[in-house]
Amino acid sequence: MSASLRLRAPAKVNLGLRILSRRADGYHELESLFAPLDLADALALEIARADAPQVALRVEPAGTGAPPDASNLAARAAELFLAEARLPLRVEIALQKVTPVGAGLGGGSSDAAAVLLALARFAPDALPAGRLAALALRLGADVPFFLDPRPAWVGGIGERVTPVAGVPSLALLLANPGEPLATREVFRVYDVLHPGTAARRPAEIPADLPRRLADPESLAALLHNDLEPAALRLCPAVRRLRAELRARGARAVGMSGSGPTVFGVFESPAAARAAADPPLPGPAWLRVATTGESR
After folding, report:
1. Can you give the residue range of the structural domain that contains 176?
2. Which residues pair with 29 in a beta bridge?
3. Which of 293, 212, 288, 191 is nearest to 248 (CA)?
4. Quick check: 4 pLDDT over 70?
5. Are 150 and 220 part of one and the same domain?
C-alpha cells in the first residue's frame, strides 16, 4: 500500500501571552489565545511500505534556515509516529517553507503536526485514541494546537487547547527584523528577569472575547505578551518594529510567541496591504496575513 498526501501547515499568532509559573522541570505554564494564519507551509508526503522505518526530507527553497535533516521537526514527527506505531514505512517529505524559521509563528510546530495528521490518515488504526496529541506534545509545546488549527485558548505547557467560537477574522501586518530568535533563549532571559516570581492563577476565557478583539482599546490590552521584555533584551529591533507599525496606522500592536515577529492589527486586509508599502530596509520584512480557520 502507498499514498501521496498533501497538506498545508498554517502559521499562527499569539493574541496575547501570559506566563503563569515555572515548573520544577523547567517548563513554563502559560495561557494564550492562538489564532491560525493564512500564511502556510506546504507539505507533500509519499508513503509506502518498507522493510524498516525510513524517513527522508527535502526542504525548499534553499536558504530558509530550516534544517534539511533529521533534526527538522517534520522529520522528527515522522520518526516518532513510525516508532510508536511500529510501522515499517518509508516516508518521503517535501517541505515548501513559507513561514520564517525562529519567528514566533509556529512554522516548525505546524509542519510537525501536518506530518502526524498525514500518517494518522494513512494508518488510522495505528495508534490508540488520544495518542496523537501526546506525541504532538513530546515534539513541542505548540504542536498540539496545530492538530486542529482554529482559534483556541491554550494553557498548561501547550497541552490544554480549548477552541474559542466567535473570534473575528483580523487583518494583520507582520513585521520581522530578519533574524531568528531561539525560544529557549527567550525563556532563559525571562527567568533571569523574573527570579522567584510567585505563580499566578489561570484566567477564565473572557466571555466577551470577540467584542474585545473588535474594540481597539480593549484589543491593545489583550495583546500584552509577558515574553516581550525578554525578547527585547535579545533583539532590540522589536521595539523599532512596534513603532513602525504604529506609525503605519495599526489599531493595536503585539508580539507573537517568543518573537521576534510583531504584528499590527488593521481595519481591513486592504488597509494592511497599503501599510506594507514602502518595504522595510535591510533583512527586515513586512507581510500581510489574516487570521481565521485553517487547514
Report:
1. 171-290
2. 21
3. 288
4. yes
5. no
Distance (Å, rounded) from C-alpha 254 to C-alpha 270?
Answer: 20
Asked if residue 155 and residue 64 are part of one domain, the reply reads: yes
Q: List, by residue number, the catalytic residues.
A: 12, 142
Residues 25 and 149 in one domain: yes
CA distance 253 to 144: 26
Phi, psi dihedral angles at 91 (to 5 degrees): -120, 115
Condensed to tens digits (0 to 9), the pLDDT of residues 37-72 reads 999 999 999 999 999 999 999 999 988 899 999 999
From residue 58, alpha-carbon distances to 69, 92, 97 in Å are: 8, 8, 10
Rounded Cα gap, residues 67 and 73, in angstroms: 9
Please give the tally of structural domains in the chain: 2
Q: What is the rounded distance in angstroms from the CA atom of residue 263 to the CA atom of residue 17?
A: 14
State the pLDDT at residue 196: 79
Confidence at residue 293, expressed as pLDDT on a 0 to 100 scale = 67
Do 159 and 176 share a domain, yes or no?
A: no
Closest alpha carbon to 8 in 43, 46, 45: 43
Distance CA 144, CA 135 (A): 9
pLDDT in tens, 156-178: 999 999 999 989 999 999 999 99
Q: Look at residue 140 in the predicted model and tell me its pLDDT.
A: 94
Whether 262 contacts 253, CB under 8 Å: yes
Q: CA 96, 65, 290, 10: dihedral to nearest 10 degrees?
A: 50
Q: Is the pLDDT of residue 79 over 70?
A: yes
Decide which of 140, 163, 186 is a domain's last residue.
Answer: 163
